[in-house]
Design goal:
This protein is mostly helical and about 110 residues long. The chain has seven helices and no strands.
Length: about 110
Amino acid sequence: LDMYKEPKKMVEDISALGLRHVGYGIPTELFGPFVTATVQVVRTLTDNDAAEEAFRWSLSLISRILTRVINEGSTIVMKAINANSSKQVKKAVGWAPRGKRALWMLNVQVGTQS
């Protein structure tokens, strides 16, 4: 219910979760099937169509926020790190100006979250 009482705080919390998912290398294509599967489980637990729809809507909103954060927070450096390739990391960092290479390696930011 906090999502509805304090929506700005929840968006910040969900964005922070999305940034952690960037580091985990979670593909955004998995969010849709996750929402579908979770809603199917809830469907078996209740006969209340309004509750099921509210749950689906809420989880879909969270999924869209996470997808946006992951797409915006996936820098070329993070993608190279997730690929576990030192060659790709060197190439990605090579695009940064010399004075900012360390910052590029350490900085992942989306909106107010970093």
